[in-house]
Amino acid sequence: MDIDIGNALDAVAGPGVPRDSLDRLDGRVAEAHERIDRGMADDEFGYAALNLPERVDTAAIRDAVAPLTDAETVLTIGIGGSALGAATLTDALETDGDAYYLDNVDPAQTSALLADLDLESTALNVVSRSGTTAETLANFLVVREVYEDRGVDWTEHTLVTTGESGNLRDLADEHDLPVLPVPDGVPGRFSALSTVGLASAAILGVDVESVVTGARAERESLSGSLYETPAYAYGAITYALNARGASANVVMPYHESLETYAEWYAQLSAESLGKAGLGQTPVRALGATDQHSQLQLYRAGPNDKLVTFVHARDGPDVDIPDAELEGLDYLDGASLGELRDAEFEATEASLADVGLPNVRVEIERVDAAAIGGLLYGMEAATVLAGELYGVETFTQPAVEWGKEVARDLLRGGDPLDETTSLRVTRE
Ligand SMILES: O=P(O)(O)OC[C@H]1O[C@H](O)[C@H](O)[C@@H](O)[C@@H]1O
């Protein structure tokens, strides 16, 4: 993963970071790196995530999924960090079959998905670190019943990825289901490079070993200077821009297959850094599609955001057939990839032109190793940013609050008095 932060400096952008401020920030990066290094060495909660490339046992994952690799479809049931890492991998990389995710509670979506699913050729991967998450357990119970109703033995098709205790562990024990353990000390949103993120991809034939190899290379690049560590350059620049007024970070990959990556990053950043009145609002965008809509705001609206482009230098391409269409002569001899890249560079320049800070995250191509590196790099960037903000990167009390209230309501608890209604209806 390479990072180009030139368009985030004050020579180009406003808000922008002066070069001498960046040099001073580099001193704080060195201190933060020492803290991170110590946390990694002691396998402290959260910091342990950055050791996953060394610790994850891909052979054990391969063994656990072996009975399911004939499946043509994998249905992963999980939510948040227990779905987004896997979905990022299976959406970005070539797979031997289809990957579906039940990571929401939407009765319409659940019934539509199940109606069309051939259960005999579908493997289920039920993922919950805590093993108690209401959405995941509820979806699993619904899916299980559909298998039973159609006379298919769900226990033959199910793998569970969970912790040592919890409802999901109890269900797995009761039905003697194969279980992959979740890693110790790793919050869900940092678990993409573990059993949690890799198992569904492995069932579908993704080269998970290369994902880990790519992550390991990024781990080895961690150093005490942002100028030598792409991950830290990104974490530091997002922090410095946020402090100067870039309250949002628009993450805009220029590859359809990386759309889910932007979603994964949004959880990672928002849940890790949104604390004590701090944090940058992550916004998901997709190039070139959103050039034809959101770009209007990014270029002509308020300069209150950073745009992060994610781009692969190389990849498959398709020639555009010559058609000699009037006014479209510039397409003659071009390819879809060249058109996409020209649009990307033009958008980057158009934002720099109006002083909107933007950063280029570049990978060689969208392949297993590069995606492993990208995910690891962004996790390290987020941990570094957490140190600079001085927040508790690895907790999520605000998320827990909402979960508890929802549970209370389901148990028949008192109506909520935190909200006020001013309902407007048509006459
Ligand atoms: O893996 P689970 O325990 O089911 O948790 C799934 C998700 O639930 C919560 O909302 C947490 O805040 C997320 O970080 C987590 O990834």
Automatic annotation (TrEMBL):
The active site is at E271, H292, K403. Keywords: Cytoplasm, Gluconeogenesis, Glycolysis, Isomerase. It catalyses: alpha-D-glucose 6-phosphate = beta-D-fructose 6-phosphate. The keyword Cell membrane does not apply. Pathway: Carbohydrate degradation; glycolysis; D-glyceraldehyde 3-phosphate and glycerone phosphate from D-glucose: step 2/4; Carbohydrate biosynthesis; gluconeogenesis. One of its GO terms (molecular function) is glucose-6-phosphate isomerase activity. It comes from the Archaea. Catalyzes the reversible isomerization of glucose-6-phosphate to fructose-6-phosphate. Its EC number is 5.3.1.9. This is Probable glucose-6-phosphate isomerase. It is found in: Cytoplasm. It is an enzyme of class 5 (isomerase). The lineage of its organism: Archaea, Methanobacteriati, Methanobacteriota, Stenosarchaea group, Halobacteria. Its main location: cytoplasm. Belongs to the GPI family. Transmembrane segments: none annotated. Pfam families: PGI. One of its GO terms (biological process) is glycolytic process. PROSITE patterns: P_GLUCOSE_ISOMERASE_1, P_GLUCOSE_ISOMERASE_2, P_GLUCOSE_ISOMERASE_3. The keyword Cytoplasm applies.
